[in-house]
Write a structure and sequence with these properties.
Length: 153
C-alpha cells in the first residue's frame, strides 16, 4: 500500500491499542500485511524504472509524505484521547518503507536497485502485489479507514 494507507491503519491501531508496547509492533506488522494485499504503485517495467521515475518521487515520496503529515496534524488538532499513540503508530506503520530509501538513491545515481543486497529489502519486495490497476483497492481502503478514523475524532 502507499504511505497514507499504512499511516491511517497505524493510527487506527494506536487509537485502539494505546499501549505503545503493543501498538507499535502491531503497526509495523500491519505494514507487511497491507503490502501483501494487491495495491497501487506507479508504473514501470523494472524496479529501477519505477523507483527512479519522477512519478514515483511525486506520488509515493512527496505526495505520500504530505498526506501522512496531514494525518498527524489532524490527530493533533482534534486530539482524541490517544492521539499521540495514534501518531506514533501511524509513523511506525509507514516506517518500513523508509528503509528502502537507499534503493531510491542508488537508482537515482545511475545504479541498480539494491533489492538483492539485503534480506529485508528482498522480503519486502517479494511480498508486494502492486500495479497501477489496483488504485481502486487503495482508494477503498483509505475511504473505509478514514471513515472509521473520523468516527473516533
Amino acid at each position: 500500500m502507499t504511505a497514507p494507507n499504512h499511516a491511517i491503519t497505524g493510527a487506527l491501531i494506536g487509537l485502539a491499542l494505546p499501549n505503545m508496547w503493543l501498538g507499535v509492533p502491531l503497526a509495523i506488522l500491519s505494514h507487511f500485511v497491507l503490502d501483501a494485499i494487491p495495491h497501487y504503485d506507479v508504473p514501470g517495467d523494472t524496479n529501477e524504472a519505477r523507483i527512479g521515475s519522477k512519478q514515483f518521487l511525486l506520488v509515493q515520496i512527496l505526495g505520500g509524505g504530505a498526506v501522512c503529515a496531514l494525518l498527524v496534524f489532524v490527530l493533533w488538532h482534534f486530539a482524541p484521547v490517544y492521539w499521540f499513540s495514534a501518531a506514533v503508530c501511524a509513523f511506525a506503520a509507514a516506517s518500513p518503507d523508509l528503509l528502502s530509501f537507499p534503493r531510491f538513491v542508488s537508482v537515482k545515481r545511475g545504479g541498480h536497485d539494491l533489492v538483492e543486497k539485503n534480506w529485508f529489502w528482498k522480503f519486502h519486495n517479494d511480498i508486494q502485489r502492486q500495479h497501477p490497476r489496483y488504485l481502486s483497492v487503495e482508494l477503498v481502503w483509505f475511504g473505509v479507514a478514514a471513515t472509521i478514523l473520523a468516527a473516533q475524532l
